[in-house]
Amino acid sequence: MAQIGAASRQPARALGWLLLLPLIAAALFGGNLLGVRDRVFPAPTKLSTTTLNNAAGQAVSGENELPAEPYWVPLTTSTSSGTGNGTTTVTIAADALQWKVDWQCDSGTISIDARRAGAASQPIAQAEACSGSGEGFGVDSGTFTLAITTSSRWSVSVQQELDRPQVSPPLPAMTAPGSALLASGTFYGIDQQGQGTVRIYRLPDGSTALRLENFYVTPNTDFVIRLSPLPHPSSTPDFQASPSADVALLPITAGSMNFSMPSNVDPRAYHSVVIWCQRLISAYAGATLQPA
Amino acid sequence: MTAASAPVAAGAAPTFRLGSRDIKVIKPSIHDVRMRLAAVIITLQVLGQTLLGFKISVAQILITIGVCAVLEFSVVLWRDGILAWPASGLLTGNSTAFILRTTGTHHGDWWSLNGIEWFIAAGVVGLLSKYMIRVEGKHIFNPSNAGLVAILLIAGVTNVFPQYLWWGPLSVGVGLAFAVILFGAWWILRPVRMLRMAVAFWVTLAVLVGILAATGRCMVAVWHPGAICGANYWVDICTSPEVLIFVFFMMSDPVTAPKSQLGRVVYGAATAVIAVALLSFQPAEFGVKLAILASLIVTCAMVRSINRVFPAKAERSFQPEALLRGRRGGLTWITPAILAVVIITIAAPVDTAVLAGNSRVTAVELGLGGTQ
User: Fold this and answer.
1) Best label site of A252, B29, B166, B327, fewest CB within 10 Å?
2) Residue of chain A with shortest Cα separation from B159
3) In this predicted model, what pLDDT tens digit does every residue of A278-291 receive, in sequence order?
């Protein structure tokens, strides 16, 4: 493994043979023989092997569901009736990406252990100082009993992070007598992908509401649903050229969801719905509204 | 990525005396094709930093270039007694930094040293392959390609990744990048007579990836929601600026490519065939990109054989029997350098293929872990 000069042929060749050893070791390491590389450089994730394998299988088959931007869903909040230890129970969905416990206490320290039948106890907080609030994370799914050990008053709330589409049924008022479908449209991509439908309803109390169905937009954060007077905005500059109106923040990027519309926005004055990304200043997707 | 890693030409170079040695001085030449390549890569680096959102810091780029330059400068001075402008080292560092990314580096972290050890390792490994693995006085592998493949395989998806195949939706930045790449290809490949090689590679790749796309192959990438299949699979691979840079500016190194035009066409097509064979079962972009890079390792190792079958001095002759003729006999072939070539040539594609079964790679590309 060395260019061999005439004067130093033997030492150079010996060095060359010697240097083959690290080369062979690197080749075996690169091939992850016996999982050595994964052990030396573990993935920066605590996802279970099952989750990883499922993800890999979906990718190979090309059938993975369009995911939403990961979003947090509150599960439970529990507050102590006095001071001292306590427990609370929470069930984490099998497809949750992770979950977290936000805790508050006002004196001493707090420890929180997540206990699940048949599994080792998982520390969420270990003798953390009760100077205010804190948070701890978990990644496994199932039903957990959170054991809170403290001499203080305490409060804990649990949220799980999902990336599956959120499916909410239509508001009862949307189909109640006196309601009316005002307009509807189908989403198309502008700067990014968009699909699904939008419907705008007048509710019996005179207010208006907007429903997205089988909706998907390329995941990102800081989305707003806006109404545009243009019938078919085709680009971000196109959309920005006309005054538009805010309808609601869009925290979840896939599924079927309902939104109340501001009372000062008259949907009849607008001809399209645009999913606007405030962070990137980009019109991600749009839908032309057809009057019902 | 060295368009012309030419041996240092002595000529009438000025000299000076250092201790007991006469040291020749080789200054940079504006006529060196490597200057053109450096100009193209630096322009793309600037576009990457300003318009394309590349996840690499200025500090990572400068340190990688600096380490490679110092290493090459020192080796040439020590080995040949020549004080030479380290054009190849600069280019190896620049090319390495152009493709390599470290997990957790964000666009706009201008002075981040996150994962700098991997950049240095890739540059050093690349240059070591150039100076230590030499057969008949010439290096076999493209230095930046060898360094990148080694570090991507060894550090793995949790630490490093190659620049994305997709540089973003059509925009001023992407349009400018394509213009620079295509102009650079014409500007650089013409003088080194590599245009036919590039066409042979791309056409073969386009046809074979088209077949894969038509038969339902998909991949996942962290920049794309859901699987990339069908026409998108073809477009994202075959028209990727990264793939164009690979063929135009990495495969085109005259020192590691065949000498004859016919040999270069065979080399281009063979690299594409090997690349597609390796990427055909990769479910994630990391593996696809690594497959393309690893294919060049294999064909670089075949160049000596291609040169003998398609010799430069008789371009129209075809001499398959030359494969069976050894220029040296028997055991003299078994040298550390040749064994190193064999180990690298086998390990690069085999290790890349092993990646296909690693669910961590797919999980990271799906955004389920890591921070690419």
Assistant:
1) B327
2) A41
3) 877 889 899 999 99
